[in-house]
Amino acid sequence: MQLFQLLAYLLLPVCLALGYFICILVYKKKQAASEKKIKHLLEESQQAAEKIKKEAELAAKAELYQRREAFEKETQETKMELRLHEKRLSKREDNLERKMELLTKKERYIDTLSSNFALKEKKVDEKKSELEKLIEEENKALLKISNLSREEAEKLLLNRLEKELDIKCSELISKKIAEAKENAEQTAVSLISTAIQRCAATHTAENIVSSIELPNNEMKGRIIGREGRNIRAFEKATGIDVIVDDTPGVIVLSGFDSVRREIARQSMEKLILDGRIHPAHIEEIVKETEKEIEQVIQETGKQTCFELGIHNIHPELIKLVGRLKYRTSYGQNQLQHSIEVANLMGIIAGELKLDVPLAKRCGLLHDIGKAIGPEMEGTHAVAGADLAKRYDERPEVVNAIAGHHEEAPVESIYTVLASATDAISAGRPGARRETLEKYIKRLEKLESIATSFSGVESAYAIQAGREVRVMVCPDKTNDKAAAKMCYDIAREIEGQLEYPGEVVVTVIRETRFVERAK
């Protein structure tokens, strides 16, 4: 046992030493393998780095080459542009030099002309003084020969010149009128006829219906109600008078406000169809109809502006445009008239190279004052202009509204167009109607204006007042005086009468000689 322990003690250091040497050998072997591996990795890394370096150098060289090419190209283009600029500048310099030479020549020519003009002016002054002396000597000689004083001679000469001037004035008026007609009539007729053809209205003049047909006469009693309470409630709610007379099957609505009259008409028709007629239901129906009419007015105004291409218009003006639907003048519907004037103004403005949307705006709003109602102050033109100014319309539009009946000074061409197209639309055949009394008065006024001139034998208004024929005394008026009289009568009619379209004045001077052969 002790021997084994002794051997164990002896072998233990040997084993430890042997293990230590074995560990050292293994470590050195691993270290050598690691160093070999590291060396191999370093070699591969160096190779990869050299490869990347070569690739980077090649890429840099390629990019440098491309940039050089781009730079050279830009340089060439810049050089070309500079050469072009140089050529243009050289041409401009040549042109400037030529212009300078021309200006120098013109200055010299003007200097020469001014010196010549001064010499001629001096000569003219000398001639003028000589002429004054000669005239003075001639006047003295004439006074001695005629045995007349200076005042008497001047009076005699003025009388003769006045007669000659009347004749020359008649000749000049006839000549100028003929020239004006020859140059302007064809163009004006073509322009206006084109505009009218393109805007030829297919509608007829509408009237606001103020009478309502009843299904039977018993309905009159129901409309009146017990002790008249229904009719009083209706008149109070609508502001329109209801006239119930002996005419069978008809009642009449009377009122100045066309919109309220339309509300009353529709309300009455609804009540008749419904059959329930009493004060509470009447108020309900009238309020409902008022809302419907207001909606129709608003939609009509918007639709009209949209169709004409008029934008950025104030909502109140749009509402007033819609109200024109229920307004008539001489039987002509005002909304249709305003649309027609707007289209005519747009076409004529286009032919004259003017602002077409502005012209249409002026035409649509020219009669906007008629939609304001009886509360307006002044004429519809003045009231409409004030309203347009209040809603920030352009000065051209305001002046066109104010001046289309010559109630304000004309400040733009659009005012002239508004006046002309308003007359064209109103004078269109079938556009307007007038009462028999006004028609007869206009014919009588035409004839009285014509007969007020000296030398007129008789005058006749024909063609519904669109022409007046004047017979003059042949022994009192010659042909040249008759031409001047025709012009004067036309101007007098323009100043005193209002009429649609135009009036043709025809002056007839006739001399007849009759003999009988027996």
Automatic annotation (TrEMBL):
Topological type in the membrane: Single-pass membrane protein
UniProt-listed Gene3D superfamilies: Hypothetical protein af1432 (1.10.3210.10), K Homology domain, type 1 (3.30.1370.10)
Coiled-coil features, chain-numbered ranges: 35-151
Transmembrane annotation, as ranges: 6-27
Pfam family of the protein (one): RNase_Y_N
Keywords for the protein's UniProt record, in alphabetical order: Cell membrane, Coiled coil, Endonuclease, Hydrolase, Membrane, Nuclease, RNA-binding, Transmembrane, Transmembrane helix
First-level EC class: hydrolase
Its biological purpose: Endoribonuclease that initiates mRNA decay.
Protein name, as recorded: Ribonuclease Y
